[in-house]
Design brief:
heterodimer; A: seven-stranded mixed β-sheet; four-stranded antiparallel β-sheet; 11 strands; 52% strand; B: mainly beta; five-stranded antiparallel β-sheet; 0% helix; globular
Chain lengths: 111, 112
Amino acid sequence: NAGVTQTPKFQVLKTGQSMTLQCAQDMNHNSMYWYRQDPGMGLRLIYYSASEGTTDKGEVPNGYNVSRLNKREFSLRLESAAPSQTSVYFCASSDVAPKVTFGSGTRLTVV
Amino acid sequence: DQQVKQNSPSLSVQEGRISILNCDYTNSMFDYFLWYKKYPAEGPTFLISISSIKDKNEDGRFTVFLNKSAKHLSLHIVPSQPGDSAVYFCAASSNTGNQFYFGTGTSLTVIP
C-alpha cells in the first residue's frame, strides 16, 4: 500500500534551473495538493487540484506551475528556481475531505 | 497573515504525564479541524479531527477540544509516551474542504 509517492526525495538546483517534482497516489483520491514546509512557517499550500482536469492556486503559488496529468498524478514545476524556493515539498491527496494523506516529502535546495 | 497559529514552538513533558498542545485560529468560516503528527524525514500523518458541531473528540490516548467562541482548540495526550515525541501540526478548513490551513507546529518531547 504505497499511498502517496513523491520523487525525487532530495534535489539540489542552481539558481535559474528548472525541475519537476513528481507525485502519484494509488488511493483513487479525487483531490491532490502541493505544500511547502519552511522553518517557522508551517505547511503552506502552493496549488491544489480538486479533481482531474482542474487546478487552483493556494497561498503561495508564485514561481510554480502544476499539472494534473490524470487522476493519479500531480506534478509541480519550478521554471526558474530561486534560493527562496529552498524548502521541503509535500504532495498530498484526499478523497472524503477534509482528511489529507501526505507523501514523505522532497527536500529541495537552490544554491 | 497566519490564519492558524500554534504559539508554542516546543513542549517537554515527562512520560506518563499529560501533554497539552494548543492552537488558535482567526477565520470564523473554519468548521473542521485536524491534528497531524510528523516525525523527521517523514510526511505528516493524520492523528485526530473534530468538526465544529462538536466540542470534544476522543481516540484512545488522544482528545481534541474545540472552543468555538474563543477560536481555540487543544490536543491532549494522556498518558504521554516517548514515541509521541514529534512535531504536531493543527490544521483547519472550511466546508469546501479544498484548502487546509496549517499552523507552524509544536515540537513535543516526551522524556522517559
